Amino acid sequence: MDKAGIREVAKAAGVSISTVSRAFTRPELVSERTRRKVLETADKLDFNISRSATSLKSGQTYRVALLMNEEITSWFNTEVFAGINAVMHEAGYDISLFQHIDTAENRRDFFTNLPVRRNVDAVFVASFAIEPQEVEQLKRIHVPIIGINTPSAAGFDASISIDDEAGMFTAAQHLISLGHKNLIYVCSEAIDSINSSIDARGQGFVRACKMAEATHQFTWQVLAVPRGKTFADSALTALLALDEFPDAICCQTDMMAIPLVLKLDRYGHRTPRDFSIIGFDDSPYADTVNLTTMRQDPFAMGRLAAHKAMKLIAGESVETPHEVVRAQLVLRGTDSVYGGNQS
Q: For 256-260, which contacts have Cβ atoms below 8 Å and span 24 or more sequence positions?
C-alpha cells in the first residue's frame, strides 16, 4: 500500500492541510491536543513530512540526532560532536542535539516523539545503553542507530566504544604494582534510570583489587559522591573526611582528578610526594598539571561513528560494524613508588 500523503492525514485527523504542516514544522503554533491528534494519525498512516525540496527528491532529511546523557559542554560530548560534525557537515547534514537523556521523562519524550516525526536519517547515542523497547521504537523509522562508547552494542546497527572496565583495571593495576597500601576509587554515583558506560570503570577498579589481594597486602575502597557539577568538591570533602588519607587515588575522570591535584595540595597532600593519583580521559589540562591518566580519543570515535552512519544511510554494509578500543596508560608525574619521592 502506498504511503499516505498530507491530504489523507488532514482528512483523517479532521484538520486542514496547513495544520498538519504546522504540527510538524511549527508545533508552537498548534494546540497540544491538535498536534497529538495529527501525530497519532500520521503515525497510523505511516506519513512523514519532508523538510525541503532536497528531501522530497532524495527521501532524506539531511539531519541526524545525537543523544547524550549530559550537556554538550562536557569534554567528551564536545569532542564526540566535533568528530561527527567533521564528517556529517561536509555531506550537508545538520546535527540535532538531545541533551540530558538521563531521566525517565526525557527518555520517554524522545523515544515516543521521534518515531512519529521521522525527521532524521540516523541516530547517534553517546555513552549510555538503550532499552529493548526504545530500540523497537527507533526501528520503526527505519534509520540506523549508532552507539558511541555505549556499555553494550545490543540494539545498535553499528558502534565504536572504549573498554571502560579494562581501562580502569589497567589504572588500578598500575598503582598496585607501585606498592601502594591504601587505594581509593573516587567516582560519581550511578543513576538508576540510565546505564552509563562510565559506571563500568568502577567494576575495573574492583576487579583489579580483588585479583591482587592474594599476592599484595593493601586495603581499598570505592568512594562514591553525588553526580553533578560539584562532584569534584564533594570528592575533596569525602577524601579529607577519611580516618586515614590514601596513598593512591584512582579517579573516574580527569575532571575529578585535576581539581583534586590542585586543591589537595592546599591541605598538605602533595602528589607525588604524599600520594599517587591517576585520572581517565587525557582531557585538556591533564598535561598541564602533569597528570598520569588513561587516554581515550572521543573525536576519533565521533568521526568513525559518522563514517559508519554514512555507509548505513546509503544502504551499504559496514565491514566492522562494532568496534572496541582500549584506553592507553599515559605516564606523567602524579604517580610514584609507594613512599613518594625520596630525592
A: 256/186, 256/187, 256/188, 256/231, 256/232, 257/286, 257/291, 257/293, 257/334, 258/285, 258/286, 258/289, 258/291, 259/232, 259/233, 260/186, 260/232, 260/235, 260/236
Q: Are 310 and 91 in contact (CB under 8 A)?
A: yes
The model's pTM is 0.78
Distance CA 242, CA 226 (A): 17
74 occurs within a structural domain: yes
Cell numbers that stand for 105 in this block: 521523562
Contacts of 46 (CB under 8 A, 6+ apart): 3, 4
Same domain? For 115 and 10 the reply is no
Tens digit of each residue's pLDDT (9 = 90 or more) over 129-146 = 777 777 777 777 778 999
Range of 139's domain?
A: 63-162+298-326
